[in-house]
Each structure stands twice: as structure tokens, then as C-alpha cells.
Amino acid sequence: MDRLDSIFLVLLSDNKMNIKNYINGEFIASIEGKTIDNYNPSNGEVYGQIPNSTAEDIELAYNAAKSAFKQWSNTTLEKRSRILIKISELLEANLERFALAESKDNGKPLSLARQIDIPRAASNFRFFGNAITQFASEAHESVGLNAVNFTLRQPLGVVGCISPWNLPLYLFTWKIAPAIAAGNCVVAKPSEVTPMTAYLLGEICTEAGLPNGVLNIVHGLGTTTGQAIVEHPNIKAISFTGGTQTGAHIARVAAPMFKKLSLELGGKNPNIIFADCDYGKMLETTVRSSFANQGQICLCGSRIFVEASIYEKFKIDFVQKVKQLQVGHPSEENTDIGALVSGPHLEKVESYIKIAEDEGGKVLCGGLEVTIPGFENGYYLQPTVIEVEDNSCRINQEEVFGPVVTIMSFKTDKEVLQFANDVKYGLSATLWTNNLNRTLQFSKQLQTGIVWVNTWMLRDLRTPFGGAKESGVGREGGFEALRFFTEPKNICIQYE
Questions:
Q1: 493 pairs with which residues across the strands?
Q2: Residue closest to 165 by CA, chosen among 328, 336, 297
Q3: Do residues 60 and 198 both lie within one domain?
Q4: Structure pTM?
């Protein structure tokens, strides 16, 4: 692990970090040698370069994966399991280092990366390392016909995994782990905005004994590198997490090629609060579900609907709690809100605050940039609460993906259910009530892939994860992920 040690020494210094592609077990520059600047969100400075890879680099990665597939797909489940669990253990052993890299690359508080991102990335490898040993297929006896049918679930071959910038390592591993556990080989592209921990993962995989070519990590822009993965004729499936517009483009390209698609896309999630809730727990959790990771989580509850009888109390208490959140450098232990991921993204979020004001929304707190002494060029924004009166306003209909939430009152169950569903997205919803009948009715009628009741972001890795409507197609997590990365084949045997 000497190389990993040297990389982290560079991370701790002011020296530039030059990231390379990880292809066939080796770290190499892109074929054309072109690079993209990698920015540190906390200070707005370039701290390294990443390869600006082309279709030629993807072809190189594909050939490595193709060559490795025969051996890897026939590797015993026990051996695959051991390797994945070893990767998990090495991530845990290097937790502090990876958390530092994630925080520096993304702008999120170091404490968040330490507590959530890296542990969950490690958990992904451990879970699927164990799950593949329990993944069973079906058998059916055709009684009276002297026949037995059984189902084989075989790996697809070479698959593509494309992940976003908001939870860089966590969501990267969420795709890679089940893909390789199922016996596939992978060509993966992390976000060009946050490439660091994916780059470091290659070193971990080598150390864990993952055979060369099973995982190939290629860096670059979505429009070039990502496009080359999607349109490659021999990459059998695409697992993508990101914006709905990009997901629609991927579907248009990949569907005519009959690729399997898993698309986890945008969200505009309702947070529905009834007067009969556990108020203290609700208030604390709602602050977290609104602003965790600077609101840059697709599962954040960005539309808060509060029953009229407690609305004024909630408004006062919630705003007071939000004002107490500390905006600061990601490395500071007391930082609650770090830097947004990039300058252009900060501008986008600010534009939505202006749009909300123009449409009659009232900013109750926040909305202004924050200057951190010594890091004046960083991308910092106050957590923002906006009171709106009409659910059809743009800020209630379009994904902002930043530290901005709206609040709005409702009077009846029917009214708030209509508010919640009256949006093109359908990823998640959070419901706060102690009424069992209401819980069951809303859980059935909310048009989302996930409903949290009296909690938020509580995840069991065995459960299916994904959205409805324009929040995507397909499901990740648990055996659903292993089913996605395998092809079922029915075998019918008749006997005398």
C-alpha cells in the first residue's frame, strides 16, 4: 500500500493531484493525454487534473473487461465473496484517509464523510459479498408431465456503471459491488466533478486481490466518456444515477440497442407533517433531511407540507433550528453545512432562490453566500427556507439539489396527498404521523418508490431502491440489484 500512502501525502499537501484511469489493474493516462481541472470546492482552487478520456479509452477498458470475464464469471462464489469482503475491510482500515479525500473533493463536512459515506461504501461491498452466497434461483416441477424446470441466473458480461457527484464513493460502490459479485466485469465512470475516491478505490481493489480487468475505472466528461460507455455495442447493461434529463438521453441511446437499463434519477420529495407526530423527533429529523450534504442528496425532503394547526409553531421552531446550523470549512468539526460542489452549481441554486422570490415566495432565512476567512473563493451558501403558497411554483416543481427547502401549510389529508403527488418526480416521501390508518393509506397512495414513516434515510440494504415517474426505472439494492446484473435462463428437462 506504499502507493496509497504517497497519494494521501499529496492530498495533505498543496501539491497537485494528477488522477489516472484504472484499466486492467494498472493506472494509466488517457490515450490522447488530455485532462480536466479538478476543483476543491472549499476554496475554489484547482488541486489536480483528471483524464479527459475518449471512446478509445473506453474501448481499451472494454477489452480488458472482456478478457477478464471468462475467468471471473467462473470464479467460485466463495472466492468472489472473500475478495469483496476484503475490499470492505481495506476501506474500513483506510476510513480516515478516504473521508479526507471525499471531503476535499466534494466539499461535504469531513464528519459526514467519516460517519456516512465511507462506512456505507464499505457496507456495500460487505453486503453483496455475503448476498451472492445466498442468491438463489427457482425450480418448478411440472407435476404429471414428468418435467422439471429450473432457472439459471448468469452474469451479463461487460456492464457500464455511471455514478454522480453528490455521494461519490457510496453510490459508485452501490453499483460496482453487485455487478462484480454477480460475475460481471465493469467499465465504470465516476463523476468528473468528484473523481478522487473512485481513483483511490482502484488501489484498494488491487490490494484485495481483484483480478485485473474485472473493474476498470475511466474518468472524463459525461458527454464523451459517459456517452462512449452508453453507446458501446457490446456493453450489455447501463446502471446510471444522475439527473432526469441525462437519464432520458441514456434511454434514447441505449433502448434501441436492447441494453438493460437501471436509471436512478431526480427527486422533488415531499415531507408531510401531521399534528399527531412526535414533534421533537420530527423537527430534528426534518432539519437533517432538508440540509444533509448541503441538500445535495436526491432523497432530501425539499417540499415540506405542515398541517395547518401546527404550521405557525413549526415555522418558528424550524427556522430557529436552521439558523443554528454552522456553515464552514469541511474540515472543521463543528461544520454542519460545507461547500457546494462547484461554482456553476452554486449559481444554479442561487438562481432558484431568485425565481422563488419573483414568484411570490418569502425567504424566511438564508439565501446568501457565506465567506469563510482564508477560503474566500469557496462555494458556500446559507441554508435557506422559503415559504410558498402555491405548490405549482417552479421551486416546488423543479429539482434544486441544494440547501433550499420550501414550507407550505395544508388542511386535509386529501389536499396534502394531492400536493405530494402533483409533481413529475416520484423518488421518496417522508410521512410524520402516529395514525395507523393514515400511514397505510398514504403509503399506498404516495407515488414514490420509497416511503419513510417517522424516520428518514434509514436504509436496509436488502430492500429495493428506486423511483417512480421521472425519478427513474428499475431498482437497486438487495437481490434486486443481483437480478438486474444477471440474465435468467429457463432450463426444461423431461424425463421418462
A1: 148
A2: 297
A3: yes
A4: 0.95
- Residue-wise pLDDT for 320-366, tens only, equals 999 999 999 999 999 999 999 999 999 999 999 999 999 999 999 99
Q: What is the percent of the chain with per-residue pLDDT over 70, rounded to a whole number? A: 99
Which of these, 32, 86, 52, lies nearest to 206 by C-alpha position? 86
102 pLDDT band (50/70/90 cuts)?
very high
Query: What is the rounded CA–CA span in Å between residue 103 and residue 99?
Result: 6
pLDDT of residue 13: 72
At 250 the three-state DSSP class reads helix
CA 302/CA 447 separation, integer angstroms: 16
Distance in angstroms (rounded) separating the CA atoms of residues 215 and 65:
7
Q: State the CB neighbour count (10 A cutoff) for residue 176.
A: 29
pLDDT tens digit sequence for 191-227? 999 999 999 999 999 999 999 999 999 999 999 999 9
Q: Between vectors from CA 431 to CA 427 and to CA 434, what angle results, nearest 5°? A: 155
Question: 452 and 319 in one domain?
Answer: yes
Residues 383, 362 contacting (CB under 8 angstroms): no
Tell me: do 202 and 245 sit in the same domain.
Answer: yes
Inter-axis angle of helices 95-106 and 118-131, to 10 degrees?
120
Domain containing residue 412: 270-461
495 assigned to some structural domain: no
List, by residue number, the catalytic residues: 264, 298
